[in-house]
């Protein structure tokens, strides 16, 4: 007597490997990629011996060595800064302002921006610095 075996269903284990690869790539790009807007010019913050980790959230105002400004990665003229900041603050009164100034930027260009942020009503104005290298 000959018994017919039922046909085996192919296992769908190949899709599991594909899902693993996709999640690996997702985690990789989340760890490596920048989630913050970058300025259209080079900004290397000043070094500081003390400080805390940069708080998340808020908007970033970048200042180049020549004094050019960028708000969340978009170049902005000095005259348009105050209205843009006021509009953003009107949308979210708890918004944080991070000022990321190049280490060669003159202080006379940076300090008025801090004062302007406080005058407009930002409760938290943060200056971005780089920690000193160990050793």
Characterize the structure shown.
Helices cover 36% and strands 19% of the residues. It is an alpha/beta fold. It has a five-stranded mixed sheet. Strands 1-7 form a two-stranded parallel sheet. The longest helix has 20 residues, at 13-32.
Q: Order of strands across the widest beta sheet? A: 4-3-2-5-6
Distance between the termini: 83 Å
Principal-axes shape call:
elongated
Rg to the nearest angstrom?
25 Å
Q: Sheet bearing the most strands, described?
A: 5 strands, mixed
What's the helix count?
Answer: 3
Question: How many beta strands in the DSSP annotation?
Answer: 7
Mean pLDDT: 81
Structural class: alpha/beta
- Strand content is 15-25%
**What is the helix fraction of residues, given as a range?**
25-40%
As residue ranges, the low-confidence spans are none
* SSE series: HEEEEHEHEE
Keywords:
135 residues; alpha/beta; five-stranded mixed sheet; 19% strand; elongated
Task: Record the SSE blueprint.
Layout (H helix, E strand, L loop, with lengths): L12 H20 L14 E2 L10 E5 L5 E3 L2 E3 L1 H14 L4 E6 L5 H14 L3 E4 L2 E2 L4
Parallel strand pairs: 1-7, 2-5, 5-6
Antiparallel strand pairs: 2-3, 3-4
Give the structure's gist in a few sentences.
The chain is of the alpha/beta class and 135 residues long.
């Amino acid at each position: 007597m000959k018994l017919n075996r039922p046909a085996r269903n192919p296992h769908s284990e190949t899709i599991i490997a594909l899902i693993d690869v996709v999640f690996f790539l997702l985690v990789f790009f989340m760890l490596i990629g920048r989630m913050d807007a970058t300025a259209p010019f080079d900004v290397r913050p000043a070094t500081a011996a003390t400080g805390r980790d940069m708080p998340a959230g808020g908007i970033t105002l970048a200042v180049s060595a020549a004094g050019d400004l960028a708000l969340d990665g978009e170049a902005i003229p000095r005259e348009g800064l105050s209205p843009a900041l006021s509009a953003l603050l009107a949308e979210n009164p708890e918004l944080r302002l991070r000022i990321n100034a190049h280490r060669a930027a003159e202080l006379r260009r940076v300090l008025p921006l801090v004062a302007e942020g406080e005058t407009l009503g930002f409760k938290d104005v943060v200056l971005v610095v780089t920690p000193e290298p160990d050793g």
